[in-house]
Amino acid sequence: MPAKPRLGQNFLNDAQAIERIAASLGDLSGRTVLEIGPGAGAITSALVARAARVIAVELDSGLAGHLRARFPADRVTVHQQDVLTFDFSTAASEAGHPLPVFGNLPYYITSQIVLKLAASAAALDRAVLMVQREVADRITADPQSRDYGLLSVTAQLYGPATNLFTLPPSAFSPPPDVHSTVFRWRFAPRFAELGVEERTFIPFLRKVFAQKRKTLANNLRAAGISIDRISAALNQAAIDPRARAEAAPIEALAALWKALETTPELP
Q1: What contacts 241, CB < 8 A, 6 or more positions away?
Q2: Are 89 and 216 part of one and the same domain?
Q3: Which of 71, 81, 113, 123 is positioned for an S-S bond with 76, CB 3.0–4.6 A?
């Protein structure tokens, strides 16, 4: 099947990498696994050999038809659909267990898909995802590293993420202009542990990382919070007033959010 560049299609053609990716999901015996963007089915075939059933979500109608012709319907269910509209909760309910996920994510909507998976974390077990190397480095970054930012914190709030290996452009057809990294993400949301509310903590993170090189105080001031309230909250959370967002671990950001929630604006 010819790739369509407008859909970000780059088909993996490295047999060793295909097996390594499938193995990275762990034991799939008796499980239903969901694949995002199966393309021509190279990794689908490896998943079929390991799992009881594969749910394949493919946007391209031609590829969806190819997959239906290639694999038996009782082993592979093909949804010709945008993954951003896919109902993971219903799929997990029908499978009877949280879903392991694999995805070779199109570079142009990687962040959107990652956030969609985060929002569906209750229905998911673990994911092995292949993305542009620089994006994987941002997702898995530690505080005080140059790659640490809003995407790092948001993804890691929903569970630990670890880079596994990187593939060169030659592993794909057609070769992309970038290297691709495979990383594993285990879904274990931390909101209860950190004592924060998902509904309000995520918007708070967007504010403190609006410009990650700025101090937390300056970003919060730009968001309309008074300097007196910010100073009181930083003091209560035991955070240096000069601290920058890029240096703040999730635990410190949670402490700051809680301090702001309990620190009213002064009259």
Answers
A1: 215, 217, 231, 234
A2: no
A3: 71
DSSP 3-state assignment of 208?
helix
Cα–Cα distances in Å, from 218 out to 69, 210, 253?
Answer: 57, 10, 15
Pair (161, 218) in one structural domain: no
E strand segments, 71-117: 76-80, 99-104
Task: Quote the domain boundaries for residue 181.
Answer: 5-189
Computed from CA positions of residues 116, 102, 80, 88, in that sequence, does the dihedral angle turn out positive or negative? negative
Tell me how far apart the alpha carbons of residues 11 and 1 are, in angstroms, rounded to a whole number. 9
Whole-angstrom distance, CA of residue 4 vs CA of residue 13: 16
Tens of pLDDT, residues 51-76 = 999 999 999 999 999 999 999 999 99
Q: Are residues 165 and 54 in the same domain?
A: yes
pTM over 0.85: yes
Best CA proximity match to 162, nearest among 142, 147, 191: 142
- The percentage of the chain sitting over the pLDDT mark of 70, rounded to a whole number, equals 96
The CATH number given to whatever domain includes residue 207 is: 1.10.8.100
> Where do the DSSP E strands lie in 114-213?
124-132, 161-167, 172-173, 180-186
Q: Crossing angle of helices 198-208/250-261, nearest 10°?
A: 110
**Total count of residues recorded for the chain:** 267
Alpha-carbon 62 to chain mean position: 27
**Is residue 178 located within the same domain as residue 215?**
no
Give residue-wise pLDDT tens across range 100-145. Answer: 999 999 888 999 999 999 999 999 999 999 999 999 999 999 999 9
